[in-house]
C-alpha cells in the first residue's frame, strides 16, 4: 500500500507523461507535494521504484517509466508513460560488464551539506553489485582520507536503513543534510566519525539521523 504522498507523486508522473510525454521536474514535484526539500522527492521516487510502480531507464538521465498503478486507478496506456529525452547524436553501446545506477551528485566527506538533487545514470562494474539497490555519489572533502576515500572519488552505495557499527554510511541529518561517515551507535545517540584526525566526530540524537545506505565500493580516475 502506498502512502498518500507516494500515491500523489505516482499519479503526477503518470498524468504528466500521458499529457506531455515529459516527466515532471524535481521542482514541479516538490511544489506539487508541498515539500521543503527535493531530497524528499528522491526518497519517494526510491520508494516507488522499490515497490515496482516506476523504474529509471538505463542510459538516459532523468528517464522515468510508470510500470503499474494502484488497483483503484486506470492502468491503461502504460506504454505511453515513458519519458525518453533526445540528447542528439548516436546512441552508445552499453558494455555488458557494466550496470547502470543513479548518480546523485556530490556528498561532503567533511561538514554535512544539503543533499544534492542531481539525477543521472552512470555505469559501474557489474561484479561490484549484488542483488540490492544502489546509487553513486561524488565525494567532496577530505575527512575520510584515512579510510582511503579521497576528494573527487566516486563512491558506490547500497541502499539500506540500518548498518552495523564501524560501517561507512550515508547519513541524512535532520532530513536535509547528507554526509559520508563511519557509524557508531552510542546508546540513544548516533556518532558520525570522520577518518581524518583534523576533523571532529559529529554526535546526534538517533531520531535526527537516518541511514540512507552503506559504502560497498569506490571508483577513482587518475
**Separation of termini?**
46 Å
Chain-averaged pLDDT: 79
Cα-atom radius of gyration? 18 Å
Low-confidence region ranges:
74-95
Counting helices, strands and paired strands, the structural category is alpha+beta
Give the DSSP E fraction (strand runs of 2 or more residues).
25-35%
Shape: globular
Biggest sheet descriptor:
10 strands, mixed
What is the β-strand count?
12
Q: How many helices?
A: 3
Helicity range of the residues?
10-25%
Order of helices and strands: HHHEEEEEEEEEEEE
Describe the structure.
The chain has helices spanning 4-20, 26-32, 39-50; strands at 54-56, 64-66, 98-108, 113-114, 120-125, 134-140, 154-158, 168-173, 177-186, 189-193, 202-205, 209-219. It has 222 residues and is of the alpha+beta class. Strand 1 and strand 2 (64-66) form a beta hairpin. Residues 74-95 have low confidence and may be disordered.
What's the arrangement of secondary structure elements?
Layout: H1 4-20, H2 26-32, H3 39-50, E1 54-56, E2 64-66, E3 98-108, E4 113-114, E5 120-125, E6 134-140, E7 154-158, E8 168-173, E9 177-186, E10 189-193, E11 202-205, E12 209-219
Helix pairs in contact: 1-3
Question: Tags for this entry?
Answer:
single chain, 222 residues, alpha+beta, ten-stranded mixed β-sheet, two-stranded antiparallel ribbon
